[in-house]
Amino acid sequence: MQSSQSPNDAMHQGNSAPLKRAMSTRHLVMISLGGAIGTGLFLGSGEVIAQTGPVGAIIAYILGGIIAYMVMLCLGELAVHMPVSGSFGAYAQKYIGPGTGYTITWLYWLTWTATLGTEFTAAALLMQEWFPHISVWIWTLIFAAIIFGLNMSSTRLFAESEFWLSLVKVVTVISFIILGLLAIFGVLSFHGYSSAPLFSNITAEGWFPQGFFPIFATMLIVNFAFSGTELIGVAAGETQDPAKNVPKAINAAIWRLLIFFVGTIVVISALLPHEMAGLGGNGVSSSPFVTVFNYIGIPHAEDIIRFVIITALLSAANSGLYAASRMMWALSDKKQLPAVFSKVNHKGIPFVAIIVTMFGAIPGLLSEQFAPETIFKNLLGVAAFTMVVVWMSICLSQFNFRRQWYKQGHTAKELGFAAPLFPIVPILGFVFCFITGISMAADPEMLAGFIGCLIFIALCYLSYYVFYRKQN
């Protein structure tokens, strides 16, 4: 597979070298799965079941998958038509307005920079369960150094490392679903059951034990679990033959995620009473994955899951640093940040952008001194909310792009990849994302993060109109 550059490798304006096209479909699918399978699945899924009940959780994840699929169809159409690094920012700039493009690029940078803090903190807290005498911040520094090294090496090595890190998670989830189903159907013995529990637990306390509202209240957690799929759009600018690879990767990633998430929820709900699914105060040991593996009789279940979750967190941080640094590169490339941010080294890596983005891990370093739980929840809320706003921009960009396309006398058949059911898909995607974003304001613990995000958005628009409007 080539990683050499061709003259038209990337759309760029003068002050930087193009990024290299070094990724294949295999890398794209694993990068998006790697971005999505993280704490949202291993820890968040139990929270959703505890709050909504089993049937509610299954509905919530199916809804989340449908929303993600609608957004990714819109993204696929744009990414195939215009494969650039810094994708949604570029699309929002062209099809919504330059101020929005600038703001969306910064928001996506904030999404992953906030997430970096949560991934490093969570991984460090897990290591402390093994090594209680070593401080959290030492682990945070070690993990930050590893992820920094992988991102600074080369696009190809980054993609390859992400492939293998993601594979650990994917194999764990598949094993969990298969072993869980064997226990459900009585092939494997399961703690406390003389005969197979089958699916009676799922409706043991009625279909919706807490009513319908919690399904909507947990949609932010669920949508955050699917976030990462849009990394396909960011990576489109560094992908070989995007017209063929991007649509293939989007379809493969979404269907696999739906099977993984819904399969996981069904297994947990069938095997555990729903009030046991949520996280207690015992960290990973109260993850529903650990409980199920323990009950099936797998030795060292807690250690295995702890190792997998640490891998999952590092893989998400790996993807996140990649995505956020590409956003900075794109801003600098459009002369909306100093030229130094779009400097690339001889391997085609935007190294200054990577170094600056790494400072996003600082909240993770501070959290040991100042309430890790509170910082963790708020960082997660910020990351989830900014992600939802970015998804809304993708739907609106595709809606405007397609209307322009038709006005110019083209047809959908002329597009390399056309999202089906226009305009229903972008409109529904936008509306669902909007409702999900507003749900954050309903959670008193996340209200501070919600207000912070709105202030950040206002500051982005303000800085754009004060400093950059003239040059456009």
Helix content: 55-70%
What overall geometry do the principal axes of the alpha carbons give?
A: globular
The sequence of SSEs as H and E is: HHHHHHHHHHHHHHHHHHHH
Q: Let me know the CATH homologous superfamily.
A: Amino acid/polyamine transporter I
Mean pLDDT: 79
What fraction strand? Answer: under 5%
Integer count of domains: 1
Domain Amino acid permease/ SLC12A: 27-468
Transmembrane segments: 28-46, 58-80, 92-110, 130-151, 163-191, 211-232, 253-272, 304-324, 344-366, 378-396, 417-441, 447-467
Main location: membrane
InterPro entries: AA-permease/SLC12A_dom, Amino_acid_permease_CS
Which terms summarize this structure?
472 residues; Amino acid/polyamine transporter I; mainly alpha
Can you describe this structure?
InterPro entries: AA-permease/SLC12A_dom, Amino_acid_permease_CS. Residues 27-468 form the Amino acid permease/ SLC12A domain. The chain crosses the membrane at residues 28-46, 58-80, 92-110, 130-151, 163-191, 211-232, 253-272, 304-324, 344-366, 378-396, 417-441, 447-467. The chain has one domain (25-468): Amino acid/polyamine transporter I (Up-down Bundle). The chain contains 20 helices and no strands. It has helices spanning 25-36, 39-42, 44-52, 54-81, 87-95, 98-130, 136-153, 155-184, 213-217, 219-226, 231-235, 242-271, 274-277, 288-296, 301-333, 351-358, 362-366, 372-407, 424-439, 447-468. The longest helix is centred in the C-terminal third of the chain and has 36 residues, at 372-407.
